[in-house]
Amino acid sequence: MAAPESATTNDLTAVWVMNKTLSDNTDKILELQGVSWFKRKIISSSSLTLYAKHYKSDSDGQEHIDIKQVLSGGISGSDEERTLDWQERHKDDSTFGAVISKSKRMKVDEVEDEFLRNGWTEDTIGNGVICSYVESDTEKSKTTWTAEQIWGFEVINGERRYVRHVKFTGPKGEEIKAKLVYDYYNPVPFLNLTFYSGRRSYSLALEPTLIRLTRRFTSPWLLLILGAAYIISLAFLSRTNSFQTPAEAWVDCTSTYWLANDGCGLNGEACAPFDNSTYDFRCPSQCDSVILQNPRTVGDEQVDYVPLVVGGGDFNKTYRGDSFICAAAVHAGMFSDSTGGCATLELIGNFTNFLPATAHGLSSIGFPTVFPLSYRFTPSNTLRHCADLRNAALAFNILVTWLLFWVLRPKPIVLFWCLVCIGYWHVTLFSQPQGTPPPLDTAFGTFLPALFIAYAFWRLAFRFVLPAFSKAPIEASVWYLAPFWAGVLTNITTDKIPIDRLVGSDIAQRPGAVTALVIIVIILLLIVINQIRVIRKTGWLPHYARWYIIGGLVALVLALLPGLEFRIHHYILAMVLIPGTAFPTRLSAIYQGFLLGTFLNGAAAFGFDSILQTAADLRRDAPIGTDLPIFLTNSSTFDGSTPLLNQTIFWSPIPDGESWDGFALLVDDVERYAGTALNYSLAGLQAGLPHFFRLAFTTNGEAGDFTMPATLWPNGTWVNPLPGPS
């Protein structure tokens, strides 16, 4: 890539890659310098990358150029540390042995040799060239040679390039002249625009203008003061958002008064009281995105992938007790889902015929019979500070990160750590806390290991890309911040993708998940192929391929361990992919921003879950896969003309050799019987209503999977249960 006009001999800070096609062969020079044949072959077959840092020292005021040379595969080459004061410095070089070097800036007219003097661009002539003089330390190296280099910029094949003219003199007076040409490997700012009108050109340098206007605000002391102010402001904002509501008043998005299946015990006694009780509560925002991940049986229906809301369609908006409280409150219009809020819940006990309704963006389902626990809402309550401030906190934190990129512009490593800390604590305190209010002890317990992993991200990838955009703060803010916040808010940005976990059973079960996974894999494959293309150009592909192959083999071994499920959490996916973005391109910057945000979201919202989990860990509330009992009563044997008072339903005994010791029977989704009997009288049921029956085996009081519901309609029709568990 051609070097931009902003790259001059006054500032060589950039990443430069030797262009071997345009450069002269240096093998003879290396041989005369005493470099072994083996080393010369490695050098000739490798790509050479220079990481240059050009600066003036605060301590001595001298101009310095520090260059780290890296060969393909991460092999370190000779490090150049030039101080432009023309003072001799001794060094034991890893490639050339003991040498003596000195460097200075000089005018082109002062260069004596014609080869070294000619060919430079006008800006190089105006700014002066960099002169480097290196000779062998004959006393130590037992050889004699000198290498005089002039560094500057030249137009080669119509493109502006960083070039070194080398004049080498060997041990026997051999003279070799060579030209080393380098490609600019840093993104050229898009916003430094040049327009042409005839022979005249007009420049619109937005990036340098911003840098010049904001230079006064880049003091580290100002950053330190504003950082302290930010932490204090964030603490007060978090206190107002979460900690001024009594902890006992908080409910989360899945809180209910009634548990699934037999969770409330016989006749629901474990979930009492059923009525004559009120509760002032507060809900967080965005509860409509918290959904059932496994089918939940309500009457004769199965509900999944929606918030569980039963009822609310009657005049008083009455909800069944197992409805998600927050989703039901939004459905009832107590507050909006975007802000959360407070309300009062009133338990009213038995209620019959919960009507479905659609309101405020949520749809409830109906339940046509009686249930022992129901509730209604009233807007009056004693709680204050009810609005969820996560949107205000998001706007505040986006503004802060934008100011960091555009105005304060700290060193890249400081900017990186600011992103890490801001993203982590935004998830922890606002967008996706692990509890309500946020459990700070858990948050700090995860924060320290997250910092260690983030440091690895810096060393492996970010230090090679983020500094490349130091002269383009506007562009850097676009490439990094937009995907960064998209990653931090993964719970929102990926909400419509029908994949909750990368687990085979989940993907097979949910409609649209396979299609979504295929699309994601195709997109990811295209990204990986493009990154491989970039890495191959730099010569680092063998190095990265080796490590990714080793990692893949380790993952394969882990995946084959018996009794465990291999689980790739999204924070792990970010850890795997970030090292492959260590190349200064715009796409790498975009990937880094998104992957860093995704990592912080996973770590802060869920902690560092294991890469290996048991089937029980992944089951959630899905069926266990146990044996199912069989109803003997069926549509053929049930006499619908007999009154319920005289009706009894029957089921098969426990098969021989099984470890079960009893049965649990759910009637209208409430456990009404637990014991060893093989029948149940319907005398206590209310006539004129439908009734639903589900049966499970038990052992030591613990129920296995329940059957699908058998349904008895008011007209005496018995509908057999469908096969499979509920």
Automatic annotation (TrEMBL):
This is LCCL domain-containing protein. It comes from Neolentinus lepideus HHB14362 ss-1. SUPFAM superfamilies: LCCL domain (SSF69848). Gene3D superfamilies: LCCL-like domain. Pfam families: LCCL. InterPro entries: CRISP-LCCL_domain, LCCL, LCCL_sf. The lineage of its organism: Eukaryota, Fungi, Dikarya, Basidiomycota, Agaricomycotina. Keywords: Membrane, Transmembrane, Transmembrane helix. The chain crosses the membrane at residues 221-238, 389-407, 414-431, 443-462, 512-532, 544-562. Residues 309-365 form the LCCL domain.
